[in-house]
Every structure is written in C-alpha cells, then in structure tokens.
Amino acid sequence: MALNLKKLSHKPEMLAPGHRACSGCTAPFMIRLALKMVEDDEKLVTSIATGCMEVVTTIYPFSAWKCSNIHCAFENSAATLSGAEAAYRVLAKRGKVKEKFKFLAMGGDGGTYDIGFQSLSGAMERGHEMLYICYDNEGYMNTGIQRSSATPKGAETNTSFAGTAKPGKEQHRKDLTACLVAHDIPYVAQASVHNIRDLGDKIYKGLHCGGPAFINVLAPCHRGWRIGVDQGVEYARLAVEANFWPLFEVEKGLYKINYKPKTQLPITDWLKGQGRFKHLFNDKNKHIIDELQAEADKKWKQLLRREAESLEDAKAAAPAQA
Fold first, then answer.
1. How confident is the model over 170-192, as a mean pLDDT?
2. Across the chain, how many H-helices and E-strands are there?
3. C-alpha to C-alpha distance for 33 and 200, rounded to whole angstroms
4. What average pLDDT does range 153-171 have in this prediction?
5. Tell me: the pLDDT tens digits for 275-322?
6. What does DSSP assign to residue 146?
7. What average pLDDT does the structure give for the chain?
C-alpha cells in the first residue's frame, strides 16, 4: 500500500484530543496513524496494556478512544486481544457477525519486552490474525523512568544510576524484533515515528497480512531521554541515521531494508544532547560509546547479510513458482 496522506487526512480521528499525554510525546502520533489504517468497510478492536498511553487516554470516567478499546493489565494485552479475535472468528463462522473486524494490540516496551512477552509470544505462536505494536520509548517511563530490557547500554535511569560505581545500564538492549522473527509469523517490522509513510505502510501490512504480525516502533520520550519537548521526532530520525534503529521488515521470512542512510552518522550524533547519556562523554566511560558503536555496526552488517540472503532465496524460488 502506498500511503496517501491527502486521503488519510480526511479520515476521521479515532483518538480524541484532550488526552493527558505530555506535550511533545511521540506515542499518540503513532496511535492516531494506526487507528486510520483500516479500510472504510472494516471496524477496529484494540487493546492496550497498562502504561503511559493507557493512563493518559483512559482516565476514569473519560476515554479518548473512539473505537472499541480494552484496557488490559500490564502483562496481557496480546492474550486479551487474541481471545477477542478467536471469539470473532467463531461468531463470524456461525453467521452472527457480518461486519469485518481487525484487531490491534499495543503496549510500551515494559509491557512488551518484559512483562508482556509471554502473552505476546503465545498469541503469535497460536496464529491469531492480529497486529501487535510496541511503542518503544526505552524504559518504564510511566512509573518514573526505570530501566527495561529495551534500555540501551550506558543509559541512566532511576534504577540504573550513573555514578562512581556503575556507568548506567550495564547490558545491551534486547533485540525483541529478532525474537518475533524467530516465531516465523507472516509479518514483522521495525519502524520509527519520524517516517510517516514507512510507518503507515507497515501498520497497514500488519493489519492485512492474514495472520499474526508485530511492529516495533521507536517512540522517544523526552522526559526519559532528557531532551527538549520538541526534539522527540528528531532523535528518532538520528537513531535511524546512525543505524542504531534500522527500518526494515520481514515478510514471510524474507528481509527487506526500507531505508539505508547515504552516510551513516556516528552513534555520538544520536547520544549527544540526551541527558541520560551525558556521563558517557568523559574519559572514564568513553569505552561504552565504542561498545555501542560496535554493536550498531555489527547489527547493521547482520541485517545487510540477511537482506542479501533473502534476495537470493527469492530469486531461487521464482523459477519454481513460474
């Protein structure tokens, strides 16, 4: 699907204004876009795990959601929606539901990488026709900026202090996208809030791939990243240009890189200006910057190799299909 922004702008907003998200928060933008990615003859059922976006959009007795929305516990957004999808299939088979429904589950990295990983893995393995989107802001931001397994190495949070004993988080971030690719589902992708067309195309594909799908979306939190209120989208762009967060998709097992920087930025261009990394720019901790650069370079080379292998696989399969 080629995203038609003009047509999209005329579609009604399904996330009402007036919610309590922080000024400059990038996650509501992603949600607004996602809720418009259904066809005119389709209805949408959503679930959202406890977290920033649930708290700011469903403060009792109000709701910002104009479509069906289920607030789940921290750990079970995917499980809840997989049950709704299964019920829909049964009712449709019996002729009790005539409308077309699509199913969209969401959670932050805390409710996806960590607490909700078991239910997400189960829903994907069972083959439910649903899309799960993780809005990844690289920490438990809603509860006071604690580290998650999505937090990059070296980042300072309220549970990974940077001081004389430790230089922030000691581990590299979990590669959750790779974990979902290993489930061998029809569609997996990484996206970023700064690239509207790429993000919208991927959400549409995920909703209409005919099976389980997962999209990991980088959605900077200016409070947790300690950047300016108006800098969230820019830091998402810098993460992509530095190959810290490549944009790619895996469709039926085949890798495709959606954007290749003409000139890869050094990882320092993304790190600098973020308060959570300021301690890395002293002589004692500069080795962590080198480790982050090496990790980004290694992952990028792996991704290029997988794309090349996918192209070879596709060429080999073409004569057999013909």
1. 98
2. 12, 8
3. 7
4. 96
5. 999 999 999 999 999 999 999 999 999 999 999 999 999 999 887 665
6. B
7. 96
Structural domain boundaries, residue 206? 5-321
Token pair recorded at residue 174? 């979990």
Q: What is the b/e burial string over 242-275, where b = at least 16 CB atoms within 10 angstroms of the residue's CB?
A: bbbbbbbbbeeeebebbeeeeeebebeebbebbe
Distance of alpha carbon 156 from alpha carbon 169, whole angstroms: 6
pLDDT of residue 37: 96
Structurally, how many domains does the chain consist of? Answer: 1
Query: Residue 109's domain is classified under what CATH number?
Result: 3.40.50.970
CA distance 262 to 265: 9
* Cβ-count burial 28-38 (b if 16+ within 10 Å, e if not): bbbbebbbbbb
Kindly give, in sequence order, each residue whose CB lies less than 8 Å from that of residue 308, ignoring residues fewer than 6 positions away: none
> What global pTM score does this model have?
0.97
Angle CA 155–109–183, to nearest 5: 120
**Prior bond of 61 cis (ω within 30°):** yes
Through-space distance between the first and last CA atoms of the chain, rounded to whole angstroms = 24
- Residue 234: phi and psi, rounded to 5, are -65, -40
